[in-house]
């Protein structure tokens, strides 16, 4: 694993002293390696690892099973940001007094996406941010041939590096340039067709919206450096606001992109 | 325990002193309660809580009138193990206590203890409901089925509508129940749930029609979620914006919308200026974001939105 040295050291120390908590929360942005670390914890605890779901039925199945364990078992409930209130309440009891031989880990993008009562029962481990050098090292270890400068400038997590390197990056770069050139000049009826090239649903095709916004900001900065035209800095400011909105759990991505388009047109027309 | 067991208790006149009824068919429960009181020759009394009669139950009374006591959702019983124990050990003497529960959590200790005492009156199967209805009123099979559908297979609601038919028959001297039913259904006296209320609501908003507030109430009645309303309003507004701002002859090619979406949008052209449509889109997104991050309370969003838009 690249990066997260301090976190992994802390975890090893707790395991060595036999004081690793029975219930913990791993938080970090999407693609930062939470599941990988959870599995690593399972390895060093020498547990059977069970990838449990986050629905209330899944949680109840976990509860039914965990009281009859014959060997150490780690239950991982990944991406629990959208866990229902019923599922969270079902989790409360078992995590207050975990049965012998059981460990529980939930992973969250945002610690606020769970109940205060669950947070109080768990030890929270926050993943460290990755440095650009670590992300480049990750890309090299995966033998990606994408431009290192682009990875350094727009990726924040190994997950984003993986996503970016799936694209034809020069084509992606050109698409962003075309968007900048035409977003304020095409007709209102046409402009929303931009969203056809973006991945607005989990199972959809297209460029990841977050990476698109970051690439957009990168290209705007490049153009500002070349032209000193203040409109490009305004473009960066508008886009960074919408980038923040994408962090809100359950926010409608199509809605965010639509309003971003309207605001960019308002700034640049 | 099921309703058949209760029937056999009634037939053998050996009704236990403590019964628990639950389930959606409250009218059927009431029929059984009345029958128990009749068969056991007891007075029927509805009480608010067992504490109303607790003192008199504990005292010896020379001239006591035994009764069937009916209480709904009494936490004194469901939450108090001491009272539950006393109920099991002769507190009621020759009285009968029927506890009605609106819902029962099957994970609770109370349910596990009284599982055998609880009778769940599930929604009546259609053929049984039909038989119940045709016992009350002479409707043809097709009209009976129509009535059941309109009342969403709820026996209580069916009885209310049957009452309207009877009242109208007495007033108008029309003898044929089928004719009365058809007449009342057509003129809206027999209440029909609005379908597709959410699309009617969005159409009314995009038409600047003040009736949208009534349609909002109807949408709430059918249980439409606020987020769904916001989503439909947003999508329709965006489509209208695209169609309204399209200068090309081939709208479908320019906008990427289907002909159905374009036709739908064209019904509302120019009721709002382009800037107003953009404002509506922003407002809807602001409301959605506010609900997600907790700054807005969901029940107040739609009225707020309609007021701002209109």
Explained architecture:
The complex is a heterodimer of chains A (269) and B (310). With 269 residues, chain A is α/β, with parallel strands linked by helices. Chain A is built from 13 helices and seven strands. In chain A, the strands form two sheets. Chain A has a five-stranded parallel sheet with strand order 2-3-4-1-5, with helices on both faces. A two-stranded parallel sheet of chain A has the order 6-7. In chain A, strand 2 (48-52), helix 3 and strand 3 (73-77) form a beta-alpha-beta unit. The longest helix of chain A is centred in the C-terminal third of the chain and has 19 residues, at 209-227. The mean pLDDT of chain A is 89. Chain B is an alpha/beta fold and 310 residues long. Chain B has 17 helices and five strands. Chain B has a five-stranded parallel sheet with strand order 2-3-4-1-5, covered by helices on one side. The radius of gyration of chain B is 28 Å and the shape is elongated. Chain B starts with a helix and ends with a helix. The A-B interface holds A 187-190, 192-193, 196, 245, 248-252, 255-256, 258-259, 262 and B 231, 234, 238, 241-243, 245-248, 251, 254-256, 274, 278, 281-282, 284-285, 288-289, 292-293.
């Amino acid at each position: 694993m690249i990066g997260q040295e301090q976190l992994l050291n802390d975890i090893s120390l707790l395991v060595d002293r036999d004081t690793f908590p029975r219930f913990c929360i791993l938080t970090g942005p999407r693609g930062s390696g939470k599941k990988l670390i959870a599995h690593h914890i399972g390895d060093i605890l020498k547990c059977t690892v069970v990838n449990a779901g986050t629905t209330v039925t899944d949680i109840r199945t976990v509860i039914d099973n965990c009281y009859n364990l014959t060997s150490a078992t780690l239950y991982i409930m990944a991406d629990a940001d959208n866990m229902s209130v019923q599922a969270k309440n079902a989790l409360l009891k078992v995590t207050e007094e975990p049965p012998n031989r059981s460990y529980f880990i939930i992973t969250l993008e945002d610690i606020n996406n769970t109940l205060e009562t669950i947070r109080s029962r768990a030890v929270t481990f926050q993943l460290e941010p990755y440095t650009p050098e670590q992300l480049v090292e990750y890309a090299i270890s995966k033998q990606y041939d994408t431009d290192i400068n682009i990875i350094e400038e727009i990726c924040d997590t190994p997950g984003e590096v993986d996503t970016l390197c799936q694209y034809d990056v020069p084509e992606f770069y050109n698409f962003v340039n075309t968007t900048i050139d035409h977003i304020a000049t095409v007709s209102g009826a046409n402009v929303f067709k931009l969203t056809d090239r973006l991945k607005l649903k989990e199972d959809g095709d297209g460029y990841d919206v977050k990476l698109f916004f970051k690439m957009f900001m990168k290209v705007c900065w490049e153009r500002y450096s070349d032209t000193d035209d203040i409109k490009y800095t305004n473009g960066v400011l508008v886009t960074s606001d919408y980038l923040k909105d994408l962090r809100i759990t359950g926010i409608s991505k199509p809605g965010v992109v639509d309003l971003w388009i309207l605001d960019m047109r308002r700034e640049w027309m | 325990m099921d309703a058949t067991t209760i029937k056999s208790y009634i037939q053998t006149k050996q009704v236990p002193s403590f019964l628990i009824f639950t389930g959606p068919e409250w009218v059927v429960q009431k029929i059984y309660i009345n029958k128990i009181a009749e068969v056991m020759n007891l007075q029927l009394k509805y009480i608010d809580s067992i504490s109303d009669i607790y003192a008199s139950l504990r005292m010896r009374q020379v001239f006591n009138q035994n009764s069937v006591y009916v209480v709904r959702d009494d936490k004194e019983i469901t939450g108090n193990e001491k009272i539950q124990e006393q109920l099991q050990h002769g507190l009621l003497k020759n009285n009968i206590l029927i506890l009605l529960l609106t819902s029962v959590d099957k994970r609770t200790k109370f349910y596990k203890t009284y599982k055998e005492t609880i009778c769940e009156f599930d929604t009546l199967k259609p053929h049984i409901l039909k038989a119940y209805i045709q016992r009350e009123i002479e409707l043809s099979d097709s009209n009976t089925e129509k009535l059941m559908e309109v009342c969403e297979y709820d026996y209580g609601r069916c009885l209310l509508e049957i009452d309207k038919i009877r009242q109208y028959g007495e007033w108008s001297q029309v003898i044929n129940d089928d004719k009365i039913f058809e007449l009342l259904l057509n003129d809206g006296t027999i209440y029909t749930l609005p379908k597709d209320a959410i699309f009617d609501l969005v159409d009314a908003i995009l038409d600047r029609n003040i009736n949208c507030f009534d349609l909002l109430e109807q949408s709430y009645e059918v249980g439409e979620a606020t987020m769904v309303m916001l989503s439909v309003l947003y999508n329709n507004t965006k489509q209208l914006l695209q169609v309204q701002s399209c200068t090309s002859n081939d709208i479908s090619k320019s906008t990427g919308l289907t002909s159905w979406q374009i036709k739908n949008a064209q019904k509302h052209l120019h009721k709002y200026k382009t800037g107003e449509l953009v404002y509506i889109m922003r407002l809807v997104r602001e409301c959605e974001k506010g609900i997600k991050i907790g700054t807005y309370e969901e029940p107040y969003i739609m009225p707020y939105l309609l007021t701002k838009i209109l």
